[in-house]
Amino acid sequence: MNLLLVDDEAPALSKLRRFLADDAGVRIVAEAADGAAALAVVQAQPEAVDAVLLDIQMPGRSGLEVAAALPPHVLVAFTTAYDEYAVQAFELNAVDYLLKPFTRERLAACVARLRERLAPPERAQQRQRLTTALHTLQPVADHWLVADRGEMRRVPLADIECVSAADNYIELQSATATWLDRTTLAAFLAHPAARRFVRVHRSCAVQPARVLALEPLGSGDAQLRLASGRTIRLSRRYRDEWLAALKR
């Protein structure tokens, strides 16, 4: 198994290297002291990294942001002094972690779990659990984290006119740009950060503040004209929900 070690503290990297030295089944492909360097390693040799031992609290990009930007095939185990409640959240989503200070035996158990999950079906399920956990832990704020060309970007939700479902992704659309994020529309709308959005048909939600006009189409349907000039259909099924949202 090819491992990438990521930690901003040199003693922590040294400890990982020392504990892993006796495991003939592990090859350390690189070490990184921050998130940007870690992503650069993976981008330079994407097929050479099977898993990452990743610190959460680092300057610049946090471990959470780095994990969200990694390719789907790369498994993640966190090394962290994070509080016990966050650690429990990761554990419930089957994302492994090493709580500092950790022992040689605990690291060996972590590596064994990663190795088991390298089988293709387990690998895909593990990555999906990680994605779910990361979205659950999105900060309740006015931004949404998305991976964009290997970097994490904070998209201001105030700029987003509508959010559309696209298979297992959503498209966040502003007047001038579109961002893709690997989650479902239902999961997005369930997050407190998305409370400003209202569903207008099965595969789309709109921010009322970005709507200029409601235009009847007949048969009970209508369309919403957005600030950018884009139009979105408002289905009869969601019309009452839309009107109720305008009164809040």
UniProtKB/TrEMBL annotation:
UniProt xrefs under Pfam families: LytTR, Response_reg
Keyword Repeat attributed: no
A GO BP annotation: regulation of DNA-templated transcription
Molecular-function GO term, any one: phosphorelay response regulator activity
Domain Response regulatory, chain residue ranges per copy: 2-115
GO cellular component: cytosol; protein-DNA complex
Keyword line: DNA-binding, Phosphoprotein
List of residues that carry 4-aspartylphosphate: D55
Record keyword DNA-binding present: yes
Residue ranges of coiled coil: none
Domain HTH LytTR-type: 155-248
Protein name as it appears in the record: LytTR family DNA-binding domain-containing protein
Species this protein is from: Scleromatobacter humisilvae
Phylogenetic classification of the source organism: Bacteria, Pseudomonadati, Pseudomonadota, Betaproteobacteria, Burkholderiales
